[in-house]
Amino acid sequence: NTAILWFRRDLRLADNPALHLALREAERLIPVFIWSPEEEGEWAPGGASRWWLHHSLADLAGELAKRGCPLVIRRGDSLAELRRLARETGAGGVFWNRLYEPAAIARDTRIKEALREDGLEAQSANSALLIEPWQIRTGGGDPYRVFTPYWKAAQALLPAGRLEPVPAALVPAAEPPQSLPLEALELLPRIAWAAAFPGRWQPGAGGARQRLERFAEDVVLDYSARRDQPAQDATSGLSPHLHFGDIGPRQVLMRMQRALAEDRGSGRIATTDHFLREIGWREFAHHLLFHFPRTPTEPLYDKFAAFPWRKPKDYAADLAAWQRGRTGVPIVDAGMRELWTTGIMHNRVRMIVASFLTKNLLIPWQEGAKWFWDTLVDADLANNTLGWQWTAGCGADAAPYFRVFNPVLQSQKFDPQGEYLRRWLPELAALPTDRLHMPGAQRPAIVDLAETRQRALDAYARIKGA
Ligand code: FAD
């Protein structure tokens, strides 16, 4: 008999629990991907994500073809396509790995019920997280809103043991179902914008494995010392791979544990812990999104709903300057150009540009989150929401509102030689390093940093007692 394996954002065969669920129920497998962006509501994949998805799907299709079981590609209503495919092939069940975005949860719940009413088996599994969001509660039975106690509680629940091996061969449907060519999904941008992406990224499971290997062997040793320096290639670069499920967090955890078992040097223990803590932030972000599903658009803490942001007609020109890297504050402009050119921005610089947008420009964090959503290859609703709410000061574990990043000091501290600035603002390359960090080095700054810092503090003071 036959089972459908419904791929979504788990675009790999290794550590894919839905694959093993399906193979326990059936011999023949129909792997399918259904393009249905409307079902993700406001958060359909943005432009950079679509580029990644295209290439990651191509990689997955290649892996499946090698095992004799071609990927079926469809477009349209997910439930209707799954039903059609079950009818066409006589499949007895549908298996998939879970997602945690509110729209996806609602859709998947509806689909599971409908398929079961049809008399089909329908089961989901966890491929994306170390710990399910509902597995951890505070002593009082509530979800966590603070990271450190969350991660402490999580340590006791981390998965252990071995991952199931990838089958060398898979048995396809007796009659191959119809499939669209990948190009029919039109995921690649029509403009030349993504021209530099292929030089920077290799989407798919193979690219993810290579990154993880390089990181576990070598880069992690300097992670704590260099992770905050945007000019360095000192972090794992795994975020888009984790978002699309080219690789899963269990694979990352276990690879890091193996590296530790081989080398118990104290430096490696400390930096590995530090790195796994960042993986912990990803888990925490999903915990928050699951328990507070309104947070992609609304502040976690209600009193921030009254925050006196500027109005769209007043900030439109400043928002455009920020998006295009034309604010006149070099570290902000460098970051926004890195984002536009490569689909990624270093974490430290994300914090700087987000602070500049929300505090110095007093533009709502939701505008920044939307721009990131469209331009980041790692755009992830859980992580992006946490990052923006944290920086704006209205989310979980946020920095106190009175701590407004000074972009010049940040730039001097984390890019002391100006290497990052020169890379992304080549027109400034000839300036002496001390001038390079200063607003106005390249173009007049759109705001005065000290004045707008005070304006932000005054705005926060107005809601403080609320
Ligand atoms: P590493 O330092 O190697 O970390 C390993 C992994 O841990 C990352 O791949 C990521 O999955 C996770 N991680 C690290 N830092 C964080 C964090 N602060 N929050 C949640 N998970 C984290 N990350 C996204 O994946 N998608 C987003 O859309 C996103 N938007 C952000 C927006 C803002 C305003 C900020 C401040 C941060 C955002 N981040 C987002 C978090 C972080 O910047 C990236 O995860 C990180 O830069 C990815 O690089 P890396 O894979 O080399 O990270």
TrEMBL record:
<dbReference type="InterPro" id="IPR018394">
    <property type="entry name" value="DNA_photolyase_1_CS_C"/>
</dbReference>
<dbReference type="InterPro" id="IPR005101">
    <property type="entry name" value="Cryptochr/Photolyase_FAD-bd"/>
</dbReference>
<dbReference type="GO" id="GO:0071949">
    <property type="term" value="F:FAD binding"/>
</dbReference>
<dbReference type="InterPro" id="IPR006050">
    <property type="entry name" value="DNA_photolyase_N"/>
</dbReference>
<comment type="similarity">
    <text>Belongs to the DNA photolyase family.</text>
</comment>
<keyword id="KW-0456">Lyase</keyword>
<keyword id="KW-0157">Chromophore</keyword>
<dbReference type="GO" id="GO:0006139">
    <property type="term" value="P:nucleobase-containing compound metabolic process"/>
</dbReference>
<comment type="similarity">
    <text>Belongs to the DNA photolyase class-1 family.</text>
</comment>
<dbReference type="GO" id="GO:0003904">
    <property type="term" value="F:deoxyribodipyrimidine photo-lyase activity"/>
</dbReference>
<dbReference type="GO" id="GO:0009416">
    <property type="term" value="P:response to light stimulus"/>
</dbReference>
<feature type="site" description="Electron transfer via tryptophanyl radical">
    <location>
        <position position="309"/>
    </location>
</feature>
<feature type="binding site">
    <location>
        <begin position="378"/>
        <end position="380"/>
    </location>
    <ligand>
        <name>FAD</name>
    </ligand>
</feature>
<keyword id="KW-0274">FAD</keyword>
<feature type="binding site">
    <location>
        <begin position="235"/>
        <end position="239"/>
    </location>
    <ligand>
        <name>FAD</name>
    </ligand>
</feature>
<feature type="site" description="Electron transfer via tryptophanyl radical">
    <location>
        <position position="365"/>
    </location>
</feature>
<feature type="domain" description="Photolyase/cryptochrome alpha/beta">
    <location>
        <begin position="1"/>
        <end position="130"/>
    </location>
</feature>
<dbReference type="Pfam" id="PF03441">
    <property type="entry name" value="FAD_binding_7"/>
</dbReference>
<dbReference type="InterPro" id="IPR036134">
    <property type="entry name" value="Crypto/Photolyase_FAD-like_sf"/>
</dbReference>
<keyword id="KW-0285">Flavoprotein</keyword>
<dbReference type="GO" id="GO:0003677">
    <property type="term" value="F:DNA binding"/>
</dbReference>
<feature type="binding site">
    <location>
        <position position="223"/>
    </location>
    <ligand>
        <name>FAD</name>
    </ligand>
</feature>
<dbReference type="GO" id="GO:0006950">
    <property type="term" value="P:response to stress"/>
</dbReference>
<dbReference type="InterPro" id="IPR014729">
    <property type="entry name" value="Rossmann-like_a/b/a_fold"/>
</dbReference>
<feature type="binding site">
    <location>
        <position position="275"/>
    </location>
    <ligand>
        <name>FAD</name>
    </ligand>
</feature>
<dbReference type="InterPro" id="IPR036155">
    <property type="entry name" value="Crypto/Photolyase_N_sf"/>
</dbReference>
<protein>
    <submittedName>
        <fullName>Deoxyribodipyrimidine photolyase</fullName>
    </submittedName>
</protein>
<feature type="site" description="Electron transfer via tryptophanyl radical">
    <location>
        <position position="388"/>
    </location>
</feature>
<dbReference type="Pfam" id="PF00875">
    <property type="entry name" value="DNA_photolyase"/>
</dbReference>
<dbReference type="InterPro" id="IPR002081">
    <property type="entry name" value="Cryptochrome/DNA_photolyase_1"/>
</dbReference>
